[in-house]
Amino acid sequence: MIKITMRNHFLLLLFIPFLFSCIPAKDIIYLQGEPIAKKEIKRINNIPYKLQVDDILNIDIKSNDETLVSVFKKQSSNSKNTTIDESQMFFNGYSIDSYGNIRMPTLGEVNVLGYTELEVRKKIENELKKFIKTQEELFVSVKLAGIKYTAIGEIGSPGPNIIYQNKLSIIDAISSSGDITAVGNRKKVEIIRNSITGTEKFTIDLTQISAFDSDVFYIKPNDIINVIPLKQKTWGTGTTGLGALTTIVSLFTLISTTFILARNL
């Protein structure tokens, strides 16, 4: 009677991995489904980013007479090196301090906190006109020195990252951070966003093609991408049938050994 009971228990344990522990394919495949034909073009809700403390700006001032504007430009520490890297941007760019200011040659402190790139460009142009009275044409370029984000949780390469693009989708960001692990929840990826108005949290389902229509499909600078784990990781029984089976067999062996030793006592 004991052998039959133990055998039934063993068969039950064999089925547990396949019923509860295996991760279905639909939970790990990105952008499933067919795109829905649009009758009208939807305008992307791309609200201009407002600058925050510790952002770094790349500001370039040009004119027909370069000697005229040279006093307003920061001298590059390695002007001969055309390769862009994070350290170069840090030392040659304009970092926004805790008061929301950048410090420019001749112009001095310029407050840019809460401004967009376009607004900062116009503000600098107006400041330059106070010093330059001639009819020389000025060209001012203001760009954020890359899009910085931080990926945490079930991600291949967690930590901060900077992508030198004007626009960055969450798919690009996740790909650049080593992709989501096998036990990461692709159906509920969290995006934590800090702004001058406070902190917001959004979620996006990356397993559905409808993710392209999400307002948070394109991330903003300083976003935090948090990939929470699936329940399978909490259970600790493996992500595949074989892995779960190995765990269950080991557990069954331990129980059987304990039971046999207890009978012989």
UniProtKB/TrEMBL annotation:
Annotated Polysaccharide export protein N-terminal domain residues: 48-134
InterPro entries: Poly_export, Poly_export_N
Signal peptide residues on this chain, from the entry's feature table: none
Keyword S-adenosyl-L-methionine on entry: no
Protein name: Polysaccharide export protein N-terminal domain-containing protein
Transmembrane segments: 241-262
GO molecular function, one term: polysaccharide transmembrane transporter activity
Keyword annotations from UniProtKB, A to Z: Membrane, Signal, Transmembrane, Transmembrane helix
Keyword set includes Transmembrane: yes
